[in-house]
């Protein structure tokens, strides 16, 4: 039986019949979501920026320092670690659109740096100089580097494990936890009637990222469903530990992001949200929640949530859908 994994150049040259409707549907949603940064009148937020505290400006600069290079890092993960190992045309269509979206996000963050009086060199250099930020980046690079050093042999169990590890590193940890943690901080300014246009820009990015997350989780579950050799207790424990390690790194990063806190928010508050997010991602992969914390930012519940939960190493259901929960359970 043909599976979603494959490296043949002549495979995946016909779109119909579609084998993975979820990928085709996500591609069409992504196309419908197309937007451009300069559609937002970001200059209208300049007055807000000028009256923000030093801690608030630091937080915004810190976010830009992290988001900008890491959107490009996601594209490397897709180009080297995902696209070459899939053989369904609909997955290639979606990944091509996702890679364009990541580039569009980079341009959106460049627009922020162009508009606000932020020291661009300082912002760029922070992802190297700030230990907590550099540690997160090295975590991602560790998995992407494996894809660039030599091609994966996805005919082997270990090769398929490396494929899934990369997906978990960039899609679950980076996009599904770290990015959403940053989005919450970015959108918190609007909660205090600051940077409303900047928040609109973030809203559009979140809309894209919700689809990226849906695609990645569907892809992980499909690979596990089609490859029973991956569904072992040992591999499941390893994957869970990757996510827990990601939480620990994010906690350190958030203490540098808000060393003294800002009005209505401090590092402990953000880290409670990080743990909540991690539990949601663990549940989406079929694990039980680890931290068992309530959502401290129920105002973020407008972002998407899953309906279908599956077990990481049992039968896989790839009908991954989203919903806005009445109980305030967020992304």
From TrEMBL:
Binding site for Fe cation 1: 71, 102, 105
EC numbers: 1.17.4.1
Parts of the chain that traverse the membrane: 167-189
Catalytic activity as recorded in UniProt: a 2'-deoxyribonucleoside 5'-diphosphate + [thioredoxin]-disulfide + H2O = a ribonucleoside 5'-diphosphate + [thioredoxin]-dithiol
GO BP: any one term: deoxyribonucleotide biosynthetic process
Keyword tags: Deoxyribonucleotide synthesis, Iron, Membrane, Metal-binding, Oxidoreductase, Transmembrane, Transmembrane helix
Cofactor: binding comment: Binds 2 iron ions per subunit.
GO molecular function: metal ion binding; ribonucleoside-diphosphate reductase activity, thioredoxin disulfide as acceptor
Binding site for Fe cation 2: 102, 175, 209, 212
Keyword Membrane: yes
Cofactor: Fe cation
InterPro entries: Ferritin-like_SF (IPR009078), RNR-like (IPR012348), RNR_small (IPR033909), RNR_small_fam (IPR000358)
UniProt KW Oxidoreductase keyword: yes
Classification via Pfam families: Ribonuc_red_sm (PF00268)
Group of enzyme by EC: oxidoreductase
Role of this protein: Provides the precursors necessary for DNA synthesis. Catalyzes the biosynthesis of deoxyribonucleotides from the corresponding ribonucleotides.
Quaternary structure and partners: Tetramer of two alpha and two beta subunits.
Family, per entry: Belongs to the ribonucleoside diphosphate reductase small chain family.
The protein, known as: Ribonucleoside-diphosphate reductase subunit beta
Organism: Phytoactinopolyspora halotolerans
């Amino acid at each position: 039986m043909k599976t979603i994994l494959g490296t043949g150049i002549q495979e995946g040259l016909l779109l119909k019949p579609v084998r993975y409707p979820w990928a085709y549907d996500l591609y069409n949603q992504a196309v419908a979501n197309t937007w451009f940064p300069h559609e937002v009148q970001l200059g209208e937020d300049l007055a807000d920026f000028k009256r923000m505290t030093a801690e608030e400006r630091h937080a915004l600069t810190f976010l830009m320092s992290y988001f900008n290079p890491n959107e490009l890092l996601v594209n490397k993960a897709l180009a080297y670690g995902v696209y070459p190992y899939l053989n369904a045309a609909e997955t290639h269509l979606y990944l091509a659109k996702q890679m364009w979206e990541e580039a569009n996000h980079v341009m959106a963050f460049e627009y922020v740096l162009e508009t606000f009086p932020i020291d661009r060199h300082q912002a760029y250099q922070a992802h190297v100089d700030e230990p907590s930020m550099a540690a997160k980046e090295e975590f991602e690079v560790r998995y992407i580097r494996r894809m660039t050093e030599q091609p994966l042999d996805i005919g082997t169990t270990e090769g398929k494990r490396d494929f899934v590890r990369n997906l978990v590193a960039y899609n679950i940890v980076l996009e599904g936890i770290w990015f959403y943690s940053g989005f919450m901080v970015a959108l918190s300014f609007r909660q205090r009637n600051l940077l409303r246009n900047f928040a609109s820009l973030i809203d559009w990015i979140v809309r894209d990222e919700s689809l990226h997350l849906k695609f990645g989780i569907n892809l992980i579950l499909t690979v596990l469903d089609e490859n029973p050799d991956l569904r072992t207790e040992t591999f499941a424990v390893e994957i869970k530990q990757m996510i827990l390690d990601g939480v620990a790194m994010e906690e350190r990063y958030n203490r540098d992001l808000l060393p003294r806190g800002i009005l209505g928010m401090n590092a402990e508050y953000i880290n409670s949200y990080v743990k909540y997010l991690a539990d949601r991602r663990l549940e989406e992969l079929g694990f039980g929640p680890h931290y068992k914390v309530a959502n401290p930012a129920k105002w973020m519940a407008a972002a998407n949530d899953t309906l279908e939960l599956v077990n990481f190493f049992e039968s896989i259901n790839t009908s991954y859908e989203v919903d806005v929960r009445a109980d305030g359970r967020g992304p």
